[in-house]
Amino acid sequence: MLSYVIEVKFQTFDQAKIANSYINTCLNECLSIDGIVGMNTFIGQNGEITSTIKCENKSCMTSVDEKFQEVIRTLRSTMIFQAKTFYSICSFQYEKEAVSTDL
């Protein structure tokens, strides 16, 4: 599985919280891109955000890259931060479904 990874580091956690809301809204808009099979966003206590978009094919990755370059440009017009984007291949993944039957 191919992944598009965005790593963004802000000066403060409060800035990261604001940016995280915007990034998650943009991720929601990406759901219409054909080929996306999963997304994750993590926010760290030191002002870092990491988002991972899992794709079925390279054309999906290109579409996601175009969308996120626009997101980065918009954020740069309002905040100071460092950003890095890169492609990766998922080498391990585990997710347990949380199901409870207790009443």
Do you know the CATH topology?
A: Alpha-Beta Plaits
Task: Provide the β-strand percentage band.
Answer: 25-35%
Number of domains: 1
- How many DSSP E strands? 4
What's the pLDDT, averaged over the residues?
91
Task: Specify the CATH class.
Answer: Alpha Beta
Query: Quaternary status of these chains?
Result: single chain
Low-confidence stretches: none
Helix-strand string = EHEEHE
Enumerate the strands of the largest sheet in spatial order, edge to edge or round the barrel. 2-3-1-4
Show the helix and strand layout.
Elements: E1 2-10, H1 13-30, E2 36-43, E3 48-55, H2 58-76, E4 81-89
Antiparallel strand pairs: 1-3, 1-4, 2-3
Helix pairs in contact: 1-2
Give an overview of the whole structure.
The chain has helices spanning 13-30, 58-76; strands at residues 2-10, 36-43, 48-55, 81-89. It has a single domain (2-89), classed as Alpha-Beta Plaits (2-Layer Sandwich), CATH 3.30.70. The protein has 103 residues and is an alpha+beta fold. It is 36% helix and 33% strand. Helix 1 (13-30) runs antiparallel to helix 2 (58-76). A hairpin with a 4-residue loop joins strand 2 and strand 3 (48-55). Strands 2-3-1-4 form a four-stranded antiparallel sheet, covered by helices on one side. The longest helix is centred in the middle third of the chain and has 19 residues, at 58-76. The chain is built from two helices and four strands, in the order βαββαβ.
